[in-house]
Every structure is written in structure tokens, then in C-alpha cells.
Amino acid sequence: MADIKVCPECGSEEIIEGYLASYGTVRFYEVVPTSKIPRHTSVLACACRQCGTVFNLKLENPGFQEKKK
Fold first, then answer.
1. How confident is the model at residue 49 (pLDDT cuts 50, 70, 90)?
2. Other Cβ atoms closer than 10 A to 21
3. pTM reported for the whole predicted model
4. CA 10, 60, 50 angle in degrees (round to 5)?
5. CA distance 19 to 9
6. Are 62 and 29 in contact, with CB atoms under 8 Å apart?
7. Alpha-carbon distances, residue 23 vs 26, 43, 61 (angstroms)
8. 15 in Cβ contact with 6 (< 8 Å)
9. pLDDT for res 5
10. What is the pLDDT of residues 7-48, one digit of tens each?
11. Domain boundaries in the chain?
12. Is 33 within 8 Å of 18 (Cβ atoms)?
């Protein structure tokens, strides 16, 4: 997943990959809804071990579908 191998904040190459998690769910909502996104989609992320910056967020299974008009 890690397309970016260097921290955008501090330049460290000590990057780890994981999931954003909470007791509920982390959801992505479009500002202007134009597609349907599955409700149970994990958010993948990269984090820097040196400064703690979280970056390169991606939906694990986007499954985008155009909304019917």
C-alpha cells in the first residue's frame, strides 16, 4: 500500500502501515454525494515512527457505485 516511503513532515523513512480504528466505525462521507460507498470499509493509513504523522489514507475496499438518478 505504501506508495509514499518517506514522511511528508520530517522526511523519515521509518514508515509503518495499518488501519484507522475506533470503537464505532470510521466512515467516509462525500461533501456532495455522487456515489455510494459501502458502510463497512476500513481506512488504511501510513504513519511515521519518528514524528507520528498519519498520511496516505485510502479506503481498503472503496466499491464506488454511481448513484441512480
1. very high
2. 11
3. 0.67
4. 20
5. 20
6. no
7. 9, 14, 20
8. yes
9. 84
10. 999 999 999 999 887 766 666 666 666 666 655 677 889 999
11. 1-28+37-62
12. no
